[in-house]
Design a protein that fits this description.
Blueprint (H helix, E strand, L loop, with lengths): L1 E4 L4 H12 L5 E4 L7 H10 L2 H4 L5 H5 L9 H10 L8 E4 L2 E4 L3 H8 L1
Parallel strand pairs: 1-2
Antiparallel strand pairs: 1-3, 3-4
Length: 112
Amino acid sequence: MKVYGIKNCNSVKKAVKFLKENSIPFEFVDFKETKPTKEKIKEWTEKSDIKKLFNSRSTTYKNLKLKELNLDDEAKIEWMAKEPLLIKRPVIEYKEKVLVGFDEQTYKKELL
């Protein structure tokens, strides 16, 4: 299992805490150290909804004024590869699935 995100993100902290408390082993990949490739992001969008993955409520989205560009899915993937802080965190890869964001009920159902 891989957990993608940034260390100081509250949702990532909650996810990591949940995994540790439930003795679920994982590898952490920090977006600030390792940007995901466009191919990786496309893979995620095939297993999860791009609307969920692309964080249009983030400060980065607002600062870059991306709303005005009316991005299509391909452009969103390009932007997420350039600016990983546009990706809703955490992204968890496990088995052949992808979970986006932290939702304790979903985690309990999917991971326990």
